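Example complex used in Figure S2.
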Amino acid sequence: MSALGIVGGVLQAALVVAGSPLLVGWMRQIRARLEGRVGAGVVQPWRDLRKLFRKEAIAPAGTSEVFRFTPLVLVGSTLVVAAAIPFVTDASALGPGADLFAVVALLAMGTATLALAGLDTGTAFGGMGASRATTIIALVEPSLLMAIFALSVPVGSTNLASIVHSALRNPAQVLSPASLLAAVALLMVTVAETGRLPVDNPSTHLELTMIHEAMVLEYSGPDLALVELSASMRLSVFLGLLASLFAPWGIATSLDPVPLGVGVVVFAAKVLVLGTAVAVGEVFVAKLRLFRVPELLAGSFLLGLLAVAASFFLSRQP
Amino acid sequence: MTCAPRSRGREIAVLKLWRRIRRIGRIAEPAPEQPVADPAAVAAGLGGSIQIRHVDAGSCNACEIEVAAAFGAVYDAERYGARHVASPRHADALMVTGPVTRNMVVPLRRTYEAVPAPKLVVAVGDCARNCGVFAKAYGVAGAVGDFVPVDVEVAGCPPRPEAIVDAVRKLTGR
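Predicted assembly (492 residues):
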């Protein structure tokens, strides 16, 4: 655990918490403009959160501690992931703990906890959302692991910091066939896991088509604020992971203020560009029928598998 | 082979949509003058953000069409910080349309109870205010104000989208 890693971890956690609602606001603003609307402004998600934190929290009759602790678990696990993945600096705050499997497991734990909370409310929609979210996470996890595993093969380590470090030293690695296949697989995983179109519609009011929203229908006030904050944090964590693995340029490698500042600005810019691309793409696609979603994710798994095969057979040094 | 024409058709559709987006530009009309904020909304401390749960208490659906228009691209009530939500637990305000029919008395009260405090109620349309043309009908139990406290009323049968946007802006204060 180096000083650079700790500084980076603190910076990243603060940046993700403060910036994620702004990212969501920016993406909503882009969609609004393309739809011919004016839009509520980039800071609207922060206004919503501020108001929700002032409101009364209601725990429905019959719910247990699972329902009450889920928002904290969600924010906590996402915060650890945000501090662990090398976004701003190439060293991780958790050192050897920033392992590919640990990070993926932490992200999956958030989804699993939310699914349990959805079941805990005992409502029809909560259970339905939980079952759908579990279906998607079960298909997403293998492709996520495959995609990052393909990147870890040439490096010889599953530590995310080593993967990023190796890509920084050897930029040609990013353009290898294995890396490109993994990038596409990871992009599909990101879209599915953060509940964007075409898998889930983040602005739907129709309970029958909901996935993420259906599980959080019973949350109110500060609890809802934490759930929404963690959902937006997950979005920036996934986009940041994509940026760090496939475009690691600009990440700070020393503790000087200048590279650190550049690292922060570059990380924010990369996530903003990726978010813009996702938001523009969303305008052009309709939501997939739920039974077609496994086909999309199977495609993503296949790309991940091909990436692993390619990294074994093509990039093996003689 | 069957795939090729379909994917080409899709590509053209994307291009057509992109050209249309560029040609039309902004559909939303310029914002009218800001109305005076509602004192109850100011006391609730919403700070420019309001989530609305719509309750149809027995409306003829004319008000629903106007509410949909108010939140559509032309009137764009969302630019003032208002948003429709799928659950009363997420809401700050209920938007009730129609006279309260016998079957909707209990659901309306329960929805009101499910909203976390501080909560507001907007009665949209003449039916919600005073039963309108359905007054004294056998299935009507009363106006919205007879069952839950109403903070803002929107007159009209049905009210124009401008009036609904005006009421929403009184709540968000933007």
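Residues 154 and 162 of chain B are 10 Å apart (CA to CA). The mean pLDDT of chain B is 88.
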